[in-house]
């Protein structure tokens, strides 16, 4: 685990506040079904925050359609994400977690658009809260 504020989160409060799938993803590292999330085809202008703690994670200007079934971004807000090597499911991947509350968000891959960062942050919609900007 990364250095975080996880000890300050009341898990019982979260279980009551979050949907079962959101809790399973954010706190237990599950994955929502592909193409099921509210933000997969969402391209409004604004910012995406961690659903647990409100930490700003991504800007809509960095979101793109990857066809993978989950919201994809090519850049995260600096300092917002911690990265953990993930060897599960017979793969070597990089897990992304909220740097503020240590909630699981998804994974980052090196197969994003070459004209930008080359990164694809593949993030579960249930981990995100969207704040529109004018």
Describe the structure.
With 134 residues, the chain is of the alpha+beta class. The chain has a single domain, classed as Peptide methionine sulfoxide reductase (Metal Binding Protein, Guanine Nucleotide Exchange Factor, Chain A), CATH 2.170.150. Strand 5 and strand 6 form a beta hairpin. The radius of gyration is 14 Å and the shape is globular. The termini are far apart. The N terminus is likely disordered.
Quick summary of this structure?
The protein is an alpha+beta fold and 134 residues long. It contains two helices and nine strands; from the N terminus they run H-H-E-E-E-E-E-E-E-E-E.
Distance between the termini: 37 Å
The CATH class turns out to be Mainly Beta
In which order are the strands of the major sheet placed? 3-4-8-7-6-5
User: Any idea what the CATH architecture is?
Assistant: Beta Complex
The fourth-level CATH homologous superfamily is Peptide methionine sulfoxide reductase
Number of domains: 1
Discrete helix count: 2
Task: Give helix % range.
Answer: 10-25%
Which keywords apply here?
alpha+beta; Metal Binding Protein, Guanine Nucleotide Exchange Factor, Chain A; 6-stranded antiparallel beta sheet; globular; disordered N terminus
């Amino acid at each position: 685990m990364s250095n975080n504020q996880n000890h300050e989160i009341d898990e019982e409060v979260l279980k009551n506040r979050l949907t079962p799938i959101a809790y399973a993803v954010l706190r237990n590292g599950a994955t929502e079904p592909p193409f099921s999330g509210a933000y997969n085809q969402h391209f409004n202008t604004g910012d995406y925050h961690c659903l647990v703690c409100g930490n700003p994670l991504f800007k809509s200007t960095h979101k793109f359609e990857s066809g993978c079934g989950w919201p994809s971004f090519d850049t995260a807000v600096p300092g917002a994400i911690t990265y953990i090597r993930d060897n599960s499911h017979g793969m070597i991947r990089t897990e992304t977690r909220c740097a503020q509350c240590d909630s699981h968000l998804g994974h980052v891959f090196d197969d994003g658009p070459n004209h930008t960062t080359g990164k694809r942050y593949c993030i579960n919609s249930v981990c995100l809260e969207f704040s529109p900007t004018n």
